[in-house]
Amino acid sequence: MKRLAIFALVFLSALRFPQSGFAESPPESFLHPRPAAAFPFAFWKADAAGATPTPSASPSASPNTFVATYSSDGDTNGILTFAGKNFDAGGSWTNPHTAGYVVAVRSSDETGTATHIVNHAVENTHTSNVANSWIAIDLGSPRSAVLDKYSIRIRSGADPRAIRNWKLQGTNSTASNSISHLAAATWTDIDVRVADTTMANTGSTWVTYTITGTPGGYRWIRILQNGLNGGAVPDNYFTVSEIELYGTLSY
Q1: pLDDT value, residue 5
Q2: Is the separation of the CB atoms in 101 and 86 below 8 Å?
Q3: Residue pair 78/246 in contact by the 8 Å Cβ criterion
Q4: Could you tell me if 95 and 84 are in contact, meaning their C-beta atoms sit under 8 angstroms apart?
Q5: Is residue 9 helix, strand or coil?
Q6: Assigned domain for 79 exists
Q7: Is 102 among the domain residues?
Q8: Are 88 and 38 contained in the same domain?
Q9: Residues paired with 1 in a beta bridge
Q10: Which percentage of the chain shows pLDDT scores above 90?
Q11: Which residues contact 176 (CB under 8 A, 6 or more apart)?
Q12: Domain co-membership, 154 together with 234
């Protein structure tokens, strides 16, 4: 070790003080070393605390896009199916809410939970009997969707209380995914239906709707039931069991 230390000192002295004399200035390359970016290989950068090195951040790429084209009710072409594959068309599907790929929130849970809405299975699920009940999906940052169609499946069972009055809405701004913050957010109407009887009041029925308004590109999507359902005795239970979204997703 002593020999190595002596050698290092001699080597450094030779760099700083050439044999031609102490008065000679150090070489230009010593005063102005070659910038790291000029080297043909990447440098790794440790933080000030000396943590495990991480590569320098690369410039952000343009967003990827996924076009979800409707083919039939309950198909596997939709945006939420794609989300369940962790936004990889070749991936294996799992419930995207359970996996943390998206967040599903419902205004209340009397039977079942919001996760059923993206579960690829019909469920006997619904909110409490409260006016203006809703279901919202957070696609996650930096994702947004421009929708052209959407599918709704009503819950299983007798007298499923088919949806009749609702708004499909979007937003890009909410303080959090809490029920109170989502309820207070400013939503833009994408599609509005009033006294729509397209869906039969039969359990597990699918219906697909074409967007009638201006779709925009939104991270959060919500279906707000703003009127009575189509039950034998109409009330405010929101009984949508599954939804799927179609259009162009930026992610």
Answers
A1: 47
A2: yes
A3: yes
A4: yes
A5: helix
A6: yes
A7: yes
A8: no
A9: none
A10: 72
A11: none
A12: yes
- CA Rg, the chain, in Å? 29
User: Which single residue is written with the structure tokens 């919500």?
Assistant: 222
Nearest to 172 by CA among 187, 184, 183: 187
Token pair recorded at residue 93: 């599907």
Same domain? For 126 and 181 the reply is: yes
Residue 169 lies in a domain: yes
pLDDT tens string 202-223: 999 999 999 998 889 999 999 9
211 with 107, same domain: the answer is yes
- Do 197 and 164 contact (CB within 8 A), yes or no? yes
Q: Are residues 10 and 106 in the same domain?
A: no
* Number of residues assigned to the chain: 251
Four-residue CA torsion sign, 123, 127, 132, 136: negative
Q: DSSP 3-state helix, strand, coil percentages of the chain (rounded to 5)?
A: 15, 25, 55
189 with 111, same domain: the answer is: yes
Give per-residue pLDDT as tens, 167-192: 999 999 999 999 999 999 999 999 99
Say how many domains are in the chain: 2
Residue-number span of the structural domain to which 199 is assigned: 66-250
Residues 43 and 81 in one domain: no
Res. 8: pLDDT tops 80: no
CB 125 within 8 A of CB 239: yes
Q: What is the CATH number of the domain that holds 164?
A: 2.60.120.260
Alpha helices (H) along the chain: 2-16, 28-31, 79-83, 96-99, 179-184
Question: Domain check: are 36 and 103 in the same one?
Answer: no
